[in-house]
From TrEMBL:
EC number(s) given by UniProt: 3.5.1.56
Name this polypeptide is given: N,N-dimethylformamidase beta subunit
Protein origin, superkingdom: Bacteria
Species annotation: Pseudoruegeria aquimaris
Domain N,N-dimethylformamidase beta subunit-like C-terminal: 63-503
Taxonomic lineage from the root: Bacteria, Pseudomonadati, Pseudomonadota, Alphaproteobacteria, Rhodobacterales
GO molecular function: N,N-dimethylformamidase activity
Keyword annotations: Hydrolase, Signal
Cleaved signal peptide residues: 1-24
Top-level EC class as recorded in UniProt: hydrolase
Length: 522
């Protein structure tokens, strides 16, 4: 087991060296926009670098179909230097083109494709994105889909670094690494193992990365991994949403006042204090939230004063974050479950990564069924599914995979699992389903893994101030829950990979998703 893990993460470490460096000597075009969130009528600016004499831009709305809305060719090119700290401060390239966003563009996720041709005929492309808010928030749609852009930026290592490679600040004004916006072979790009692993196997995800020369982070976050699948399914089903970004919750919290339902999909890991204030205060007043996510609201983050960068010291927060010991200590960028913050994420989510962790990743985590065992089949969430007590949900497409959230529970006198309330989970939360999971720990995390402290130790230090208590987090259970908070209702699917049940056309997963959307958007 341990030999397998060392081999696996040794490959990870080696692949990491390739991230962002593979195309250093090749003809290329790279670009970004002057923000990630816009409204119709605002000006979109393009910052592009290429040695080509000219380049083209295409903008398309991404959904069940790709709708090209704007194209311009023959824009004057320019090859601009990239500063060493571009990952944190942005490259600072000049504006080479701009566009006033037309009033008739629909709210959505827009992919910007830069394309250049060299003098000898070589073609290079680069993708960026922006999210378009509604011109009339809440007037056409009752639900707001919040794209997890804070987590995109945490994993984006363009410029040489991200929050997993020892950096504490990442710019929101820089190109997006390849693979976050689109990528081939979606099933092979999944981090979760979907088949039965043989002894000593290497996950196909690693083979896929090598074949396509992608950074190792592209399976962990991004439009191509998560929200895109949800949107394609939803639009095909006739659903329509307004869109926003993580940063909108920070800088435009009033946007939430226009909606009955907020939706988050996939991997929504990085949240600021203000983001939580915005959502939690509105849940109390009647906003409903549907979390089709895992490892959500795990790290606290902050934004720079000008809103162009995101800051998180993570495991080094207690030693290096300058807010420690000040009147701003509540903004310490550690995990939300840290005792010093006294604001565990489970009070918002009903669940926490600390009590579940990972499943179906290599040899260090359970290879359980890949689905949830159902415990409350009579709940309205399961209406129309035909599921019974003890049935499995989502096994075919491994909806319980990669990163998952869970809770502490006990069994009541009728045989139902019920929350203990430990870690902030509301005691009246209803556990709909569960599946085994675990945090990486000192016994199973390989030496070559880049984090010096295992996840179980991180939890032990944060919750108890004692690293040696990590065994309390070695075994966990992913869970799907629902609960009321004030006047609002919160549903949490508890897994990053829920969307793959929609991709695979699992009728029961689809029905649960419909039930949640239909009920909570009323």
């Amino acid at each position: 087991m341990r030999k397998h893990l060392l081999t696996l993460f040794g490959m990870f470490a080696g692949l990491l060296a390739l991230a962002g460096a593979s195309f250093a000597d090749e003809f290329k075009v790279e670009g970004y926009t002057n923000g990630l969130s816009f409204a119709p009528g605002e000006t979109l600016e393009f910052h592009v670098s290429t040695p080509a004499p000219s380049y083209d831009i295409t903008i398309a709305r991404s959904g069940v179909t790709e709708e090209v809305v704007w194209r311009k060719e023959g824009i004057k090119g320019g090859d601009h230097p990239t500063p060493e700290d571009a990952y944190a401060k942005g490259p600072g390239w000049p504006v080479s083109e701009s566009l006033e966003i037309p009033a008739d563009w629909r709210s959505g996720f827009y992919i910007v494709t830069f394309r250049a041709t060299s003098e000898d005929g070589r073609i290079a492309e680069w993708e960026h994105f922006f999210v378009l808010r509604s011109a009339n928030p809440g007037q056409e749609n009752d639900a707001l889909l919040v794209i997890a852009t804070s987590t995109y930026n945490a994993y984006n290592n363009w410029g040489g670094c991200n929050l997993y490679e020892g950096c504490y600040e990442v710019s929101l004004h820089r190109p997006i690494m390849r693979g976050l916006i689109s990528k081939p072979d979606i099933e092979r790009s999944r981090i979760a193992d979907t088949g039965e692993p043989a002894e000593g196997f290497v996950p196909d995800y690693l083979n896929w990365m090598q074949e396509h020369d992608f950074p190792m982070w592209v399976g962990a976050a991004g439009w191509a991994s998560y929200e895109q699948h949800f949107v394609r399914w939803a639009e095909a089903e006739g659903y329509s949403f307004d869109y926003a970004t993580s940063e909108d919750l920070e800088f435009r919290p009033e946007l939430l006042d226009n909606y009955k339902l907020m939706i988050s999909v996939g991997h929504d890991e990085y949240w600021s204090w203000n983001m939580r204030d915005a959502v939690e205060s509105r849940i109390e007043k009647g906003l409903n939230v549907a979390w089709f996510v895992g490892n959500s609201v795990y790290w606290q983050t902050r934004y720079s004063e000008d809103g162009t960068a995101m800051i998180s010291y993570k495991n080094d927060a207690h030693e290096k974050d300058p807010v420690k010991g000040t009147d701003q200590a509540h903004l310490l960028t550690t995990i939300w479950s840290d005792r010093s913050l006294n604001r565990p994420e489970a009070s918002l989510l009903g669940l926490s990564f600390n009590y579940a962790g990972y499943t179906r990743i290599g040899g260090a985590t359970p290879h359980s069924s890949g689905g949830y065992q159902v415990y409350r089949p009579d709940h309205w969430v399961f209406e129309g599914t035909g599921l019974r007590w003890g049935d499995n949900l989502g096994v075919k497409d491994t909806i319980v995979g990669y990163e998952v959230d869970g809770l502490r529970y006990t069994i009541d006198e009728e045989g139902f699992p019920v929350p203990t309330g430990e870690g902030g989970t509301p005691k009246d939360a209803i556990i709909l389903g569960m599946a085994p999971a675990s945090l990486w720990n000192p016994e199973e995390t390989p030496e070559s893994f880049m984090a010096h402290t295992s996840d179980a130790e991180v939890a032990a230090i944060a919750l108890y101030g004692d690293r040696t208590k990590w065994p309390r987090f070695k075994r966990g259970m992913a869970a799907m829950v629902i609960f009321d908070r004030g006047e609002g209702t919160v549903f949490n699917a508890g897994s990053t990979d829920w969307v793959h049940g929609l991709v695979g056309g699992d009728a029961k997963v689809e029905q649960v998703t419909r039930n949640v959307l239909n009920r909570l958007a009323q």
